[in-house]
Amino acid sequence: MKPMPAILLSAFVAAVGVLADPVLVITPEEADLGKVTPNAEGAAFKFAIKNTGDQPLKIENVRPFCGCTTVELAKKELAPNEEVELTGVLKTEHYEGLVSKGIAISTNDPKTPQKIVRVTARLPFSQTGLRLQSKVREVSAYKIGDALRLTVRVENCDAEGAAQVTAVDLPEGWKVITPLPVEVKPEAAARVEFEKPLGGAEPVEFSGAPFVIHTDHAETKVLEGKIRYTKPRSVPPPPPPVKKPEAAAPAPAGQAPAEAPTEPAKEQPAPAPEEKK
Question: Which of 98, 144, 149, 271 is 20 to 30 A from 72 (CA-CA)?
Fold first, then answer.
């Protein structure tokens, strides 16, 4: 058998090296729990985490985005083709409408070092009609590029019948960037985005700028809210690193190390001549 040419051998080794990595696969990427009745125990969910690669997969961290979500993992290192369940509980008390919570999973997969999965549930509303999500009346704007941006979520608390956002009254300089009308399905929410171009000027902090959302809902004709903006707080830069003194280069073999330079000795004054008697 003839030896494999060097070029083909290098390509084969490179291909094997590409395959010799852990590969993270999570199913499903979103655990939809559907309609859930609030209770003290919460709603259970689970994800399957599998290593489809050729090297061990190390699960370095599993971090829920919210304290209302708790998780458990039986093991943190998976052999090739091994699978483990990530189980957890979503707290459902004191929540209404659509609830969606994220979980970040960090591993040693070089192509996907972190993956975010979500848990969603639909909880009954305590009222009917439309409302701003979670009863928030003052919504924070954020800077993106050369504009201030604001996202408002309108919830439909009714079990049946869709509604529409038909118009929005905004403070001077703001505009709606979401095409209107916007449909809000029953027991669901819809997003409406506003924007204020800055024209290169730095935004100043403000609070209490009012806006009004108009709808075609029979009971909730208008929704009122306020806009606020707070500048991000700057973090002081870290102190510069302290430079370490450079070590003297080692002397060649068989040669004494160079002596460190010393300060020249100060001249001592000559003694006074003795007086002749």
Answer: 98
